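re the bet — no i am not wrong, look at it urself. input seq straight from the record:
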Amino acid sequence: MAGALRAAVVPAALVVLVALAGVVLGRVYADPLLTRLMVGAAAGSVLVGVAARRLPSWLVAPVSVAALAGWTLLSLRLAASHAALPGGLGEVAGDAARNAIPRLLTAMIPVQPAPDTVLVPVVAAWLAGMTAAEVALRAGRVLLGYLPPALLYAGALYVVGPNATPAVGPTVLFAAVAAVGLAAPGRRSGPVAVDPASGLAPAVRAAVRLRLAAASAAGLVVVVALAALLAPVVAGRVDERPVDPRRYVEPPQVESLDENPLIRISGWALNPDQRLLDVRTVAGSTEGGPPRIRLAVLSDYDGVTWRVGATYRNAGRILPAVDPAPAATTEEVRQEITVADLTGRLLPAVPTPREVGGARVAYDPASGTLIRPEGLAPGLRYAVSSVREKPDLNLVSTANVPAGDAVSRVLRVPDGAPEQVRRLATQLAESNGAPYARADAIATFLAEHYRVTADAPSGHAYPNLTFFLFGPRNGGGQRGTSEQFAAAFAVLGRLAGLPTRVVVGFEPRADGPVRAADAYAWPEVLFEGVGWVPFDPMPRPDEQPRPVEEDFRPQPEEPPPSEVPAPTEQPTATPPAAAPAPGRPAGGPGTPVLVGGGVGGLLLVVGAVLAAFAAMRRRLSRSRLERSDPGARVAGAWRELTDALRLAGRPVGDDLAAAEVAERARVALAEARAATGGPAVGGAEPGGVGELAGLVNQVAFGPGTTSEQAARAAMLATSYGDALRDARPRWRRLWWRAHPGPLRWRR
């Protein structure tokens, strides 16, 4: 009995050492499921090693691997059921095997136990226990057998990084259990070992034993010396912040389509009956209609586009809780959502989601939005439980807005804001001191002066907003979709000192289908102690907008006192008036002077307008070709080419592939040269358009565009546009440079 107990000390120590790695790693998980699975892997691997001690060594590994496969499948089944993931065991196991390591390192803390976040730890625990049992029990090298559990323990500490408190207790227990195992080692299988000096002469036997004792003493001295030297170093690093391995792994990113979902509003407005979602509210008040469903939060603006700019990390079924504003009331809303024609990765949900079932998600706590890394697909069904926050509107009127580095992102106004827009923001803010009054004044101004139209072109860059705010009504200005209303409010608000952002989502009228007509963009303003408060700058359906010119008039600048001429003390004598010439009224210029001055003034005005359009065109081209990441610059070069075709009277539809557009571009250039008597080929090589089409396809289907490729795309688009322009008559070349079409065409 005593021998059996002594023999069980080392296997028990190995089980505890491997299980302690699960305890350490489980500190960053949302619940103890991972720790239990790793404890089971530790016990199973060591017990298989103990039971197979009498089998041939070559047979132990296959037996243990077969047991590992069974335990792994059981662990994946339990984790999938725990995370409420759909699909069969084979599908779940295949997905976990493909994505286990990146999802483990990009998962949000606390990590939700799911098949892909438990697979690697469970397999590593089993392999560590199997190797340790073979070395410590079969070979009798207990100290060497501790190496796999020690490496597993160190790996667990590294994965946890700075996301948990120092594991002092488990580390001390690890050392204590290892010492107990060394003090009572298990017996090595095979014949009992004998004293190597038992058959020697007494003198030789004494010398051998003395040499062995000296070697043991020397080894002990070395171990003690190393402990004395390394103990202060190790103790000094206990309180240091460890490295987080997550910083070396890129978290899931949204697609280019989802990076700026605001541009999708105009497309949905033109197809109002398109069925995007089906929603059923399971719990929560629907008084006044179902709650708004949020798709994306856009906080970054560069003067051209609003972008999501979020950092999404893989999350489990339970999402991290976000504390509501102190004075806000909350309500739980549970919905079942089925995807129809909605595409992309952004996952719609009522803000702020707390639990998601039926879909694997990644979450951004800063914006409270979700994505599905695999992308949306028709028929995808998921359930989401959210905490709907209702701010105390009684506090908004007197609340201040935050400032400083913490909110600089939502206060930033990029360079190049048009002077007219700045002047309008200043005019609206001067008569409204309180932050809420400023925000309400901007919303009221937009609601009273502008119209909503479904066919308004998409775009919210500075030129688009300027045209929306101040463009002529009979020329398409002062009208737009919720895209322009929300973007204009957010820009004017930031110019007035308000932290703003744009939200894209849906406002369903009832449970059931959510159609494209329900898509909606609205602005929000951040108030201290209240949180983000939505505003509605949209006009009322029964009100006619007032012309902007009635309210927006620049204040005349008074000259400084030093420039006002002082009156003379003595009036000078007035010379006698000359007799007026026949046919000309006295005291005024003649008719030729008036006509010439009027024509000259008109030409100056027309020239100034054309010069302004030409400058805006050049600026648009530079923003497309020079001021973005390489992929966006290639896309901008393609837009330059399609704008050139449209200017030449050869527009191409959105349904054409890039190669088809390139072929039409070649034909358009050849025909234009032939019509003007120029060579059919020569100048800009039409075949270069095919290369540009290849670069565009690479951006769309093969990420990784370089700056050299972007520069090449810009050169190809510019040379083609110049060649197509040079093939036009002379007066059309001049009009080409100043044509305002590309400023308002959908991009």
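see?? Residues 186-193, 554-588, 680-684 have pLDDT under 50 and may be disordered. told u. also The first helix runs from residue 2 to 25. so pay up
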